[in-house]
Specification:
32 residues, mainly alpha, 94% helix
């Protein structure tokens, strides 16, 4: 159960990081 929860949190962090990266690069490309 603990490993399942860890995997869920890990995937959630990866998804949020990817979304943040895309929004960040989109903001930079839109700024310049």
């Amino acid at each position: 159960m603990a490993s399942y929860l860890f995997c869920y949190i890990f995937h959630f962090k990866v998804i949020t990081l990817v979304v943040f990266d895309f929004s960040y690069f989109g903001w930079i490309s839109g700024k310049y």
